[in-house]
Specification:
about 600 residues; 6-stranded parallel beta sheet; single chain
Length: about 600
Amino acid sequence: MSSDANLNVLWARALLEELVRGGVRHAVVCPGSRSSALALACAHTPGLRTWSVIDERSAGFFALGMAKHSRQPVVVVVTSGSAGAHLYPAVIEAAMAQVPLVVLTADRPLELQGWGAPQTVPQARFYGEFARMFADVGLPESHSGAIAHLRATAARAVNTACRAPRGAVQLNVPFREPLAPVAQDFGAEKLTTLAREGRPDAPLTRILPPSRMPDAAALDTVRARIAATERGVILCGPRDEDDGFAEAITALSLATGYPVLAEAASQARYGGGPLTVSLYDALLRHEPFARAHAPELILRFGGGLTPKSPQQWMDGSSAELIVFSDEGALYDPPHRASMVVEGSAVLASRALAEGLSRGAGRWAQGFLSAERVARHALESALAERPDALTEPRLAREVVAALPAGALFFVSSSMPIRAVDAFAQGGGVPLRVLANRGANGIDGIVSSAAGVAAAAGRPAVLLSGDLALLHDVGGLVTAARARVSLTVVVVNNDGGGIFSFLPLAQSAKPDEFETLFGTPHGVDLSHAAALAGARFHRPTTPSALRTAVRTGLEGGFHLVEVQVDRATNVDEHRNLFARMATALGEGPWV
């Protein structure tokens, strides 16, 4: 039916039109009655691709993954009541990782609030401080001013989600019955053209973003500090944008002569330049090296650091810390930064590189030489057990199996740490993403499925078993979305990360195992069968590489690698010890 024949339909259509004109290209819709007008508007709005997800928590992370990959805002539509509450973890992650989402929570009308009407809860400011903006758009009205206000509010919401600091916004959208799109006479002929149609191909209210070019005077100050300091490093934490960051950081490192210590999810490790250091975790755990290579200046990019050693090394030095903030967020837990430079990190790096030409000197070569020694020791240790699939070896093999340009999503907890500590870096460019805003394991499968959906090509996820079990619904979401996704699961029958904490020694063994080890005994082949995924259970490194490469050919795959949680701590410690022994007391040039 024509959208002009029903007020609810016209209202929802105007709202979705404005979101699309503001840059939204994907909508994730959960089933519900009160949200039916919004769901139909998503399906019928040109320029918008609609994805149906059964579970709201999975839907939130699916949308998050899409937005992380595309860096465009994604709409999530849920019905009234507790449905919107299931989006809370994804909204938190969006806030902490600066990912743009537009959450549309359908609601009951005012006269049903507070009087026991079913599926009715207070939905105003559902997400507290984690939402960048909240607005209740009010009940649909057949008034040009009201519809224009709705359009302008939608334009403002999508702009807020996309400007620094990015995050989720919530629009609460109440509807009265009848919810079905039946014809109504509401005086549509009295509406102005602007209210009914908006501005073709543009938001009703266009809000221009501020300049992303960092302050020129601030860059001059930083450039002077670099010129006066030879012992500097470039430290890169997690960062989602695929915007030429690796190339810009490479240019900056070559101009300054500073080594780049790059996390796997920084977009600077894979495809980085000749001064990029991957095994910095092992180097900085080695006290003689860390002490001899205390920096005087640290240029800090990206989000919060995953391993502890670089943060401890940085905190223990007297180095000046300069933080570059892409999205207006601050990552400086010890309050060490002398300056925060806001704006595009890519533009800042390029601008700084233009006035400098130090080149790689003895300082940077010390890092590179030490890494070569550590890498040789690591490879020698792994070669002694060529068929063993330990957690460090597993992470290394998965990365080695990825071709240039591959999409790789890594779960929090042990997988991201194993990749950071042991996986080979190098010149092969990879897009590595992770939910490192709140550092949780919830929604990992759904997020990876969203990445694959937004990209329209195969992706690989490395997950722990508890993260998978925490998001079994994500397997169903991936199957229903028909994405090409290979889920590699490290199955150590529980929570392996807790064995690295002091409580593993202080707690009683039975209490530790029950409360923290949390063995589950689940046969993951059943999870694969539930979602119709092709199941693989490799037992050797070569078989694992084959399974990953098979998955990258397309389709939905679940690859389970069974490892021994009881020996995992020793595996990690032995490899770090072998690298430390090889490093010795130097020299490292």
